[in-house]
Amino acid sequence: MRVSFITGYGVPKFSILFRPHGSCYLCRPICSSSTSALTTSQKPRTPLFLRPPTQSATLSDLQKWQNWAKNLASSVGSTFVDLDNGPDSTLLRRELKWLVEDVTEDGSISAEQQRNIRLRVSLEELYKLWKQRIEEKTISVYYNQGLREGLWADMGTGTGAIAIGIGMILRSYGRIIATDLSPGSWRGFQCAEAWSTGKLAGIVSNPPYIPSDHISGLQAEVGRHEPKMALDGGVNGMNDLLHLCKGAASMLKPGGFLAFETNGEKQCKHLVEYMETNAGGIFCDVNLVPDFAGVHRFVTAFHK
């Protein structure tokens, strides 16, 4: 949907915060860490699947780890579900499959593979990560733990699906603002609070990115049923993406993370070039991330 750095909406159940468009009042002030130099916990850490495969392990050693990890996941049973509605053994084994896909160069472990498997982290680190996942219920495999307790924003939330997903991951540790300019996306929701400059731990967005002259040629499933303001990104589809970059430069705190969806590789490269050369050196670790079809669809970065 259409993005805005003024208007926010969300679902209180998942610690999501929002503010109605045009309101002039503020609720209690938001607290955050200082915007001074990065601490160790704030420094950017590249996600596993984006790291180079600089480590290796034998097939037998990796299979031994995988069997150990499966047994550890199976030992959980329904304990986490009963405790706080956490994942059961089935969901944990699914997470383990994702971890294998992320950490191995080929995305799998099979008997047909060569004897040495290239990895993105060491085998020792894999044991540590999965032990922490089960014993400490930590999912630092997937995000920077230092940002978990911060304030996040889903810009142009639409139905709120992304914001709700992030809110469920953050649970009571962090909070997320869901914003949108379309009244139909927030009707019935309740105001909670707004944000301030330099306080966001993360910004995510699936903004309007379709070039204006492509709107008429969209599939009927999209063009007939989605609001035009949720699709039209201007002449080259970059209007909202560039607006997001400029806003993120001031709204993110040091070490803050951003992730934007684009129309494809051309927009991705344009956005990366802008962030690396025209954003005043604000961003670092800028990456193009492919979708499941292998198309460069997403851009991620950190605020210095």
CATH class of the largest domain: Alpha Beta
As laid out across the biggest beta sheet, the strand order is 1-5-4-6-7-9-8
Overall strand count: 9
What oligomeric state do these chains adopt?
single chain
Low-pLDDT stretches are: 5-44, 188-193
* Strand coverage percent: 15-25%
Sheet bearing the most strands, described?
7 strands, mixed
- Tell me the CATH topology of the largest domain: Rossmann fold
Helicity level: 25-40%
- Distance linking N and C termini: 28 Å
Number of helices: 8
Class by alpha and beta content? alpha/beta
Query: What is the string of helix and strand elements?
Result: EEHHHEHEHEEHHEHEE
Shape: globular
Tell me what the structure shows.
- With 304 residues, the chain is α/β, with parallel strands linked by helices.
- It has two domains: 12-30 and 144-303, Vaccinia Virus protein VP39 (Rossmann fold, 3-Layer(aba) Sandwich); 48-135, no CATH class.
- The chain is 30% helix and 17% strand.
- The chain has eight helices and nine strands.
- The strands form two sheets. The protein has a seven-stranded mixed β-sheet, sandwiched between helices. Strands 2-3 form a two-stranded antiparallel sheet.
- Strand 8 and strand 9 (296-303) form a beta hairpin.
- It is globular and about 55 Å long.
- The model is unreliable at 5-44 and 188-193 (pLDDT under 50).
- GO terms for molecular function: methyltransferase activity; nucleic acid binding.
